[in-house]
Automatic annotation (TrEMBL), chain A:
<protein>
    <submittedName>
        <fullName>Putative Chemotaxis regulator CheZ</fullName>
    </submittedName>
</protein>
<feature type="region of interest" description="Disordered">
    <location>
        <begin position="1"/>
        <end position="25"/>
    </location>
</feature>
<feature type="compositionally biased region" description="Low complexity">
    <location>
        <begin position="1"/>
        <end position="13"/>
    </location>
</feature>
<dbReference type="GO" id="GO:0003824">
    <property type="term" value="F:catalytic activity"/>
</dbReference>
<dbReference type="InterPro" id="IPR007439">
    <property type="entry name" value="Chemotax_Pase_CheZ"/>
</dbReference>
<dbReference type="GO" id="GO:0050920">
    <property type="term" value="P:regulation of chemotaxis"/>
</dbReference>
<dbReference type="GO" id="GO:0009288">
    <property type="term" value="C:bacterial-type flagellum"/>
</dbReference>
<dbReference type="Pfam" id="PF04344">
    <property type="entry name" value="CheZ"/>
</dbReference>
Amino acid sequence: MAQPQAAAKQQSAVNDDEQVEKAPDTKLYEELGELARFIDTTMKTLSEFSAPVNASTEQLPQAQTHLLNLKTQTEQGTHRVMLEVEAIQDNHAQISKMLKEMTQTLQQAKVSPALIQQMQTLGQTLGQDDKRLLDIMTALSFQDLVAQSVNKLVTILDEVEHKLLQLVVVFGPYQKQAAKTDQGKASEMLKQLEATKNTSMDQDLADEILKQFGFN
Amino acid sequence: MPADPNMKILVVDDMSTMRRIVKNILKQLGFNNLEEAENGQDALTKLKADTYGFVVSDWNMPVMMGIDMLRAIRADEKLKKIPVLMVTAEAQKENLMEAVQAGVSNYVVKPFTAETMQEKINKIFK
């Protein structure tokens, strides 16, 4: 029994040596296989990814056009409201003038003081409405602020579109992160928009600062 | 010295709506001699060609910014005494400081009310 056991041990030792010699190759093949699968998966992912990037690049000019249309529409709408307000202001000015003349005539004719009082009350009411009309006019300045924000957004989109085109044409989607870290004009304008939210002054603060410079 | 209601006033803004608003307010305040310009360069051309008593200007405009127009006015021997009121959405402290250093007569932050504009005009022409 001792002889077969010794032979078995000898055979086992030979098999171990062969495994030791073959192990690096097996490991390499496994790693290469894994790498090939990774590359294949990545290529599939990238091919899926390039379509939305291309689509986004094509959609950006449309978004810019929509934004510029929005600006034009708000501008036209604002002018339309202003036209009506100005027409009412002109009518009010005429009515006020007529009321003054009528009041003077009534005073000269020494008619009922109650009637004259009513005429004066009418004039005061018109004056209050004129103040409201002026408030409507100034409230329409929102359009200017909207237009300025739209202009900044259009510039940002223009730059983003330019960068995306560069990525698609030159580097491919691998370089997507580059757009995030870019320090160009778009990035600067985004910062400006953010900064405006946090640090813009109201009139009171502006007046405080002006006081410090002797504006009283 | 109170503001002369007949003085010629130049309203400078690239947005037509803002020019209309400022002109409307000035009209309601009793000023009727009103002209307008679309940017700083246009304004300078008009200021050099005629006699103006007051300028109301935006800051952010194409071709020439309001702040550059203000500096050009203050550097011009003939124009330097014209009061300039900045009406602007550039509402950072740095902008205000820059305007003060450039010689602005007063500063109104958008959005504003007619009362604020009247108050500023009264202060300039007191």
